[in-house]
UniProtKB/TrEMBL annotation:
<protein>
    <submittedName>
        <fullName>TXD15 protein</fullName>
    </submittedName>
</protein>
<dbReference type="InterPro" id="IPR036249">
    <property type="entry name" value="Thioredoxin-like_sf"/>
</dbReference>
<dbReference type="GO" id="GO:0005929">
    <property type="term" value="C:cilium"/>
</dbReference>
<dbReference type="InterPro" id="IPR042418">
    <property type="entry name" value="TXNDC15"/>
</dbReference>
<dbReference type="Pfam" id="PF00085">
    <property type="entry name" value="Thioredoxin"/>
</dbReference>
<keyword id="KW-0812">Transmembrane</keyword>
<feature type="transmembrane region" description="Helical">
    <location>
        <begin position="135"/>
        <end position="153"/>
    </location>
</feature>
<keyword id="KW-1133">Transmembrane helix</keyword>
<feature type="domain" description="Thioredoxin">
    <location>
        <begin position="19"/>
        <end position="100"/>
    </location>
</feature>
<dbReference type="GO" id="GO:0060271">
    <property type="term" value="P:cilium assembly"/>
</dbReference>
<dbReference type="InterPro" id="IPR013766">
    <property type="entry name" value="Thioredoxin_domain"/>
</dbReference>
<keyword id="KW-0472">Membrane</keyword>
Length: 171
């Protein structure tokens, strides 16, 4: 399982001319659904050693999320070469449902007796939530409040409240 960092591009890890299948997880470290899926996704490479497994933080790769229609996380796409072939759409995100999905799409059978272990709980994908400050959200709120204040001040009907502003009367 390879986790892409912010400077890496998904297309560098997918072979556009190949027919290899790769399962890609779009997740965010602060999403509780992503955290609950993480141990199950961590165990998949043991069950399917011939497949590739990638994970990327959708908040750091927003252009890829947009390109592949990732509206919510976690989102799992199966690629053949560099083309998305199938999307995992089940709400029950367990190792067994992931195995069934992969088998139905690729025909590759999972290894027997692969279960989620304590090591899968630890990583490489984190199964605990990471609390961070979303600076983009903070900036957006600051911009919105500033715009509302500016628009309010520029409104003619509110000018009489501001000291030094003369009321204009139409005669």
């Amino acid at each position: 399982l390879k986790i892409l960092n912010m400077s890496q591009d998904l297309m560098d890890f997918l072979n556009p001319n190949g027919s290899d299948c790769t399962l890609v997880l779009f997740y965010t470290p602060w999403c509780r659904f992503s955290a609950s899926l993480a141990p199950h996704f961590n165990s998949l490479p043991r069950a399917f050693p011939t497949l590739g497994f990638l994970a990327l933080d959708a908040s750091q790769h927003s252009s890829l999320s947009t390109r592949f229609g990732t509206v919510a996380v976690p989102n799992i796409l199966l690629f053949q070469g560099a083309k998305p072939m199938a999307r995992f759409n089940h709400t029950d995100r367990t190792l067994e449902t992931l195995k069934i999905f992969i088998f139905n799409q690729t025909g590759i059978e999972a290894k027997k007796n692969v279960v989620v272990t304590q090591a899968d709980q630890m990583g490489p994908l984190p199964s605990t939530l990471i609390k961070t400050v979303d600076w983009l959200l903070v900036f957006s709120l600051f911009f919105l409040i500033s715009f509302i204040m500016y628009a309010t001040i520029r409104t003619e009907s509110i000018r009489w409240l501001i000291p030094g502003q003369e009321q204009e009367h139409a005669e």
